[in-house]
Each structure stands twice: as structure tokens, then as C-alpha cells.
Amino acid sequence: MNEETLPPFEQAFGALRQFTRARRSASRPLEQCELCSAGLAQDHPHLVELTSRQILCACDACAMLFDGMEKSKYKRVSRRAQHLIDFEMTDGQWESLLIPINMAFFFRSSIEGRVIALYPSPAGAVESLLPLEAWNEIAEGNRPLSRLLPDVEALLVNRVGHAHGLAQAEYYIAPIDECYKLVGLIRTNWRGLSGGAAVWTEIGRFFLELRSKADPVGGEANA
User: Fold this and answer.
1) What predicted TM-score, i.e. pTM, was given to this entire model?
2) Which residue in 94, 100, 110, 193 could disulfide with 150, CB within 3.0 to 4.6 Å?
């Protein structure tokens, strides 16, 4: 299938395959900027192509061109990560969002003018219907969501441990490429019906790393 015919989340996922390859080969070919073909360092910026939601690898110079630019087809992905310590979401609110698993990310698309909910699956990212009234209620109770940058940042929710009584639910404002990185890890490592031990190890490592680099934010849930 030509990449241009793939659904938006598959195009985004394709660009993020590099994350799952990074640990496998230290001698992989040098990656190139997808705008100017310059060689890239491993820790390089990303851009979002707004209409397709495709994630593009970029050099620092190309990323700076679109940093804060208005009316551009690309946006530079934010690197801000925040751990929302006292984020408030009841079990009833979560269930009203109609997400079939206990992990998802939500972002506002400036092109479509709405909040989009995606959850990871063994086949990639799956878009879910999102009743706007449910999102609005959650957003009204959590001030950090009012500062969520459209297209490039997402509310990332992990309620897997909470659902099994093993851990508290986790909520983050995360760069959108980190969310697709999680999708890639799950798709690459999922085995059988339950996923297998390897995928849960990767999921645990992902959230450990995200938590370690995220700024803790609290005291704003109902402000």
C-alpha cells in the first residue's frame, strides 16, 4: 500500500518505527531530515503534518522554521512533558469516553476542530468516538488541559494498573510523538491474545522513562 493511502495514524506510526528499532541495532544507517535530507542525531526534533497527522523527522534548522509559525502545514512537536499529579477523572467519566482499554491519548486537532481520542492496539493506533460532553466535563475540572497545545501535545492516560487495583492511574501532558512511540512499542512487541511478558515490560519501561523526565504538576485540578 502506498504510504499516501494509509490512514493518518498508520502514517504517523510509520515515521515512529525508528523508536522501536533504536534498541535493536546500534549500527543502523544514519537517519535523514525528511525535509532537507540532512543527517540527523538520534535525539532529533519531529514535525506534525497537520492534515495527515504524519510525524516527520527533522533537523534542528528545519524544525526551527516551523516553530510557532502560523498557518503552516507543519507544526514542531513540543518536548514538554508534565506528570499531572492530582488530575481528576472518575471511573464513570472514563467509562463515558467509550475507550475499550485502559490506555489512550487525547489531542485537539486544529484542522478538524475537535478532540481526537486514540488508543494503542496490536494493529496500531485506533481512533475512538469521543462524546464532547464527557471531555468538556473532564477539561472543566482540570486546568492543565486548557494549556494543551493543539496537534503537538496530548493528554496521555494510563489506567491499566488502576483497573487491576495495582497502582494509581497516571496522567501526562506528553509530546504527540511520545504517544505514537508507545503505540509502536505495543504493536512491535505484542504476542498472542494477552500481549505476552515482553510487551508489558516495554510498556512499564516507557512510563518509567516518561515519568523520570516529566515535570510534576499539581494543585491545579479544580483551580
Assistant:
1) 0.84
2) 110
